[in-house]
Every structure is written in C-alpha cells, then in structure tokens.
Amino acid sequence: MEAPPRLAVPAALPVALAASLRDAISARTELRLLGVGRSVVSAERELIKTGSLPTVALALSYGVQASDITPTFSDDFATVSLLASWNLYNGGKDARRGRVKALELSALDVRRRQLLDQIAVEVHDAHGAAEVSLHAVASAQERVRSAQAVYDIVSKKYAVGAVPQIEVIAARTALLQARTDQITAATDTHLRLVELERVTETQGSLR
User: Fold this and answer.
1) What does the DSSP 8-state code read for residue 8?
2) 67 pLDDT band (50/70/90 cuts)?
3) What is the CATH number of the domain that holds 169?
4) Which contacts qualify for 24-29: CB closer than 8 Å, 24 or more apart?
5) What does the buried/exposed string (b/e) look like for 72-86 if buried means 16 or more CB atoms within 10 Å of the residue's CB?
6) Which of 27, 45, 61, 76 is most buried, most CB within 10 Å of its CB?
7) Does residue 46 sit within a domain?
8) d(CA 201, CA 207)
9) CA-to-CA distance for 139 and 122, rounded, in angstroms?
10) Which comes out higher in pLDDT, residue 158 or 205?
11) What is the Rg, in whole angstroms, of the alpha carbon atoms belonging to the chain?
12) Coil, strand, or helix at residue 88?
C-alpha cells in the first residue's frame, strides 16, 4: 500500500509566518468591508462639517432695457450679485451629528484593532498547526522506511528458514501500519494547509 501521489506534501511550509500575517491583513474580507464602512462614515462627517460653513454665491446678469422698440448699445446694463449665507444656529443638530459620526469612527477603529488581534491569533494557530503536521509527515515517512527495512530483512531470513512465519507477519503488519500513519499524516497536513489558506484568504496557494 503506497500513499496516493495527490497526498504529496511540501517538505516545508512555502510561506513564512510574517508573510501569512501580511496576506491575511491585506486579503481578509472583514477588514476590507470595515475599511469601506469607515470611508463612508468619514465622508458623511466631512459633509456635516461642510454644511455648517458659510456659503457664497456670485451671480452675473446682463441685459438691455429701453423705452422704445429700437434699443441702442447705450441701453444695455450689467449687474453683479454676491450672496452669502451662514446658518449660525440650527439647534445644534450639525454638532450632534458630527459627534455621532466621530463616535462611529472611534468604534470602527476599535473594531479594526479587535479584528487584527483575532486574525493574528488565527494565523498563528493555523501556521503552527501546519508546521506540526509537516513534522508528523516527516516522522511517518521515517517510520515507513524503518518498517520497510525490517520487513525486507525478516523476509530474507524467512526465505532461508532462519525465522518463523509469525515474525514475517508481524513485520508486514508494522509496515502496513506505518504506511497507514503516513497517509493519515499527509491528509491531516492538507487539512491544515486548507485552514491556513482560509484564514489568510489565499486559496490554492499552498498546495
């Protein structure tokens, strides 16, 4: 019984922990959505600030006015109008709305720090578990080589009548168990790599 080729695993993790953290921070959907939400709230706050500032309008008018139906160039006129308005008092609504948006921004910043801490823990755990599983694969492969060597020796001794058949059966059973453990370790490693890809949102990059 041999491990299927599709269960082959890398000798070492193809990405370091620091790189995994960077990938997660740049790719995680929660952080990107939080960033979009913060941009919206920030824009709303700026609009509130703009609404409380004075507004100035400049208007230019040009026309002709005459007492008869044949006006001349001396009958034309032009006017320039400058209009300014400033809502000095609106019941404090803009100030309250501005404070609300400031609090929303603070809450979003707190949420981002919480998400960063949570993501860091998830990446550390997933990366560590993947490393442990790779070490388990290496140990399982070593046990397969050792069991294979024992089985080969016992088989040769049995062929010349130097050992009883029970020893051959025991060596063969040990080899079968070692290969089974190797497949189990390889499968577990793939699961750990999938989990690492999930927490970093880099699907398909590690396998």
Assistant:
1) -
2) low
3) 1.20.1600.10
4) 24/119, 24/122, 24/123, 24/199, 24/200, 24/201, 25/116, 25/119, 27/200, 27/201, 27/202, 28/115, 28/119, 28/200, 28/201, 29/201
5) eeeeeeeeeeeeeee
6) 45
7) yes
8) 14
9) 26
10) 158
11) 38
12) coil
**pLDDT for 43 beyond 60:** yes
pTM greater than 0.90 (yes/no): no
Q: Is 64 a member of any domain? A: no
Helix axes 17-27, 29-51, angle to 10 degrees: 50
Tell me the residue type at 205. S
Query: Which residue range forms the structural domain that includes residue 188?
Result: 5-52+92-200
pLDDT above 90: percentage of residues in the chain: 61
Is the residue at 132 inside a domain?
A: yes
Residue of higher predicted confidence among 79 and 36:
36
Domain count, the chain: 1
Pairing of the two strands 55-64 and 76-85: antiparallel
The answer to whether residue 91 scores a pLDDT higher than 60 is no
Has residue 170 got a pLDDT over 90? yes
Measured at the CA of 67, the angle between CA 65 and CA 72, to 5 degrees, comes to 60
Residue 119 lies in a domain: yes
Write out the two tokens for 152. Answer: 């080969």
For the chain, report the end-to-end CA distance as a whole number of angstroms: 23
For residue 42, what are the contacts with CB-CB under 8 A and spacing of at least 6?
Answer: 101, 105
- Those residues with Cβ within 8 angstroms of residue 190's Cβ, 6 or more apart along the chain or in another chain: 7, 9, 207
